[in-house]
Amino acid sequence: MEAMLHTQPTSIPSNCFSNSLLLPNRKSKSNIFYCFYNIKKKVKTLNHDFISHNFKIQAVDTNAPQLDFKKLEGSTTKSGYNSISWPSPEDEIPFWKREVPSWDITLEGPVDIKKDSDLMQIVHVTAEMAPIAKVGGLGDVVSGLARACLSRGHKVDVFLPFYECINKQHVKDLALVNTYDSYHDGSWVSTNAYRGVVSGIPVILVEPSNHFFKGQYVYGGSYNELEAYLFFSRACLEWMQVTGTQPDIIHVHEWQTGALPLLYWDMYHHLSLKKPRLVLTIHNMEHYGECSKEQFSKCGLDGSIYATEEKAVDDRTIGHNPERISLLKGGIVYSNAVVTVSPTYLKETLCSGWLAGTLIRHREKYCGILNGIDTGMWNPATDIFLPAKFDAHNIEEKKTCKHFVQRGLGLASEGHPMGSYAPNKVPLVVCITRLVPQKGLHLITHAIKYVKEIGGQMVVLGRTSDSRVEREFEALADLHNNGSSIRILLMYSEELSHMLYAAADMVLVPSIYEPCGLAQLIGMRYGAVPVVRKTGGLADTVFDMEDQSQPEMGNGFVFEGIDEASLNWALDRAFCYYREKPNEWSAIVQKVMGIDTSWNNTAGKYIDLYKSVRVRE
Questions:
Q1: Rounded to 5°, angle at Cα 318 from 315 and 323
Q2: Is 224 in contact with 590 (CB distance < 8 Å)?
Q3: For residues 488 and 479, what is the distance between their CA atoms, to the nearest angstrom?
Q4: Residue 374 in contact with residue 494, Cβ under 8 Å?
Q5: Is residue 173 predicted with pLDDT exceeding 50?
Q6: Which uninterrupted H or E stretch holds 593?
Q7: What's the confidence (pLDDT) of residue 83?
Q8: By C-alpha distance, which of 330, 314, 310, 332 is closest to 322?
Q9: Rounded to whole angstroms, how far apart are CA atoms 124 and 90?
Q10: What's the maximum distance between 2 C-alpha atoms anywhere in the chain?
Q11: Region of residue 517 (phi > 0: left; psi between -120 and 50: alpha; otherwise: beta)
């Protein structure tokens, strides 16, 4: 095995969450119930009862300053207010659940992208894909990179488990193409492979006949997830062998598909798959795919062979009984190239964490490539979820989006400046995140209180699987959601996230560590100025407005500490710019919207990497 790996090209370019929000059931005109999974408590609003521990808002206090929407709705202005159906927190159907012209967004690549002359066949094997199976940033990255490579003329397919929770209506041209057998734990499991198209990207959905991938969500089913992803990794290779598919690149993502490189080199490469080369992207080093030797053996390889320091043993368990295997470490050792999602995070992973030794030993094939965002899906000029469209050259309609969200969530709202973009005195801060320790939970809870204290508004959209964290944020929601300045929504909605980014004046990302981060990139795309902690990809994408060493780079407000005072300092400066320097603020908004955060440039680095390891016939 080692000799085999060393014969492969290794030179690497140096630059190189969804709670089920259900539609409401109308019981009577005066009593409307919204149904959620795992209902816990009842929250009284002014006119209606809402049942949920997730979504608790109250109509805004009638004494709070508000926009005269009736006057606006009856007026004819170039801003299009008269054509908008304005929402209310009392609406039977939440405003983000309204029907839109098309949920599935079929997108074409930028017309000015030059096609590559040296084309490849690229296969992604992943546990997530936006928007049909999205939990975090992994799904966005896979879809964005796949689309960018397609726009350059490459052939791209995405392999994804056919989770039971995937809505088949969101996959165009869905058709069963193969039924074949794939191995698991001593037997062969009948497996269906479906082809389809998701937002213009070809997908192959793998559906075993057993209980794997059954459940209401992408993760957290009643099956053993680790064993399910071991099966999925082998099933993808088995499909390629059965169909004679020989891609140039098999690109695997995270621990869930970390076993695939081991299966490829030590099994399928000795059978019929000769051409493919393996690329692994590590999106978050926090998750290792730890398993026992016995569990690993269920994929058909002998787990005891891989329990060595040179292969896949979890270094933290060396000398323990029993020692464990790490799928992520195995993927690092057996892949031809390994990527993480920002240059700064690469440096951090080489200096800390138990995998640092493995990464140092394989440094020649390890590089950091900054993520981009899918600027077709995330485009305020065409976004189907927004009540009004805007771009860097015409940002006045961003104000319309802000008032739309404020009204829909019952937040206080000031008057709308007709015909020009002029920020009012109440900035709206948005934090869209998984509620996990990595994201700086203590800083998020502090920001909720501090933003209210200094006269701003804040919306937190996120969810958690930790019951303790859930209780803490439920208590904060109970405390703040009855007022006119804070909304804490313990859920995730793709539609609402688009609306919140468009409405936000600032996007807060106070992560303790952040491999790349997409929230700040999406926020900037939608004219929300980032307030971030300096770590990982945040340090590579956001530069402080008051950093005199590189004033031309300034595009946000940055703090370094993990304490509340450091966050206060950043928020104070951002609020000061917003309130006291309106012209400079408008210039910042236009500047961040004009920054190229797309996959166009980043995809080129991945393609160069693919070419460096591919086998030429």
A1: 100
A2: no
A3: 10
A4: no
A5: yes
A6: helix 582-594
A7: 81
A8: 314
A9: 44
A10: 76
A11: left
- The answer to whether 535 and 513 have CB atoms below 8 angstroms apart is yes
Higher pLDDT, 1 or 614: 614
Average pLDDT in the chain: 86
pTM here? 0.84
What residues does 506 pair with on adjacent strands?
Answer: 429, 529
Q: What φ, ψ does residue 537 adopt, rounded to 5°?
A: -65, -20
Structure tokens at 559: 């703090």
Q: For residue 129, give the 3-state DSSP assignment.
A: strand
Residues contacting 468, CB < 8 A, separation 6+: none
Here the tokens at position 564 are: 């509340």
Place of tokens 């020989």: 246
Give the position of tokens 């803490």.
472
Q: What is the pLDDT of residues 378-389, one digit of tens each?
A: 999 999 999 999
Give the dihedral of Cα atoms 298, 299, 304, 306; nearest 10 deg: -150
Peptide bond into 131 cis (omega under 30): yes
Bridge partner residues of 278 (DSSP) = 250
pLDDT digits (tens, 9 = 90+) for 116-128: 999 999 999 999 9
DSSP characters for 534-592? SSHHHHHH--BTT-TTSGGG--BEEE--SSHHHHHHHHHHHHHHHHH-HHHHHHHHHHH
- Between CA 482 and CA 459 the distance in angstroms is 13
As given in the structure block, the two tokens for residue 148 are 């960018």
How far apart are alpha carbons 280 and 287 in whole angstroms? 14
Q: How far is the C-alpha of 448 from the C-alpha of 209, rounded, in Å?
A: 47
| Of 87 and 51, the one with more pLDDT | 87
